[in-house]
Amino acid sequence: MKIDVITIFPEMCRVPLGESMIKRAQEAGLLDLHVHDLRSWTEDKHRKTDDEPYGGGQGMVMKPEPFFAAIEALRTPVTTVVMMTPQGERLDQRLVESFASGGSDSHLIVLCGHYEGVDHRVVEALVDREISIGDYVLTNGAIAATVFVDAVVRLIPGVLGDERSSEEESFSDGILEAPCYTRPPEFQGMKVPEILLSGHHAKIEEWKREKALERTKQNRPDL
Ligand code: ADE
Description:
alpha/beta; 9 helices; binds adenine
């Protein structure tokens, strides 16, 4: 999978996406990731990417020209263009899966907004999907793009060491995960539930299901 992220804060994405599994996915050739500075598609000497809003109002709006130039340079016939914005459809695991299932030849361009927003002609003419990572407002889309890329890339076949670990985790079957434990069996007087030490596979699965439902009811009754 190829992903191009376009932002005025490339380091905000490069550092977190250069670590751990996402780094290994790139080294293994499963992900071809490029983080670009939007300013490299400006033509004025101040490398200006924003301007005052028409109609008045607070804050600045991102100019259309650099986005159009960037997309023209990077787009291929298979590209899907995503814009990170709090006005987008809310990201969940189902949506993440749909982006990850595009196959190894798929190509995403992820645009990051900043200031009060992005000139709407960018959205109308270039963007296929507007995505929000939740009902709150971040200072810019680079952090949101990092979250989006991380969630999608870990579902590319081969990125997680153990394919089962993405199937068994929270949300993939609509509920949260059961609590988990490791050694030591007793710590500061707190014991690991007996059943997990029993080796009784069917009973353990039953316990996990029960705990997962309890947790979901308590923390996320909406699920
Ligand atoms: N930019 C600012 N806030 C955002 C959010 N919640 N999701 C996506 N992009 C954003």
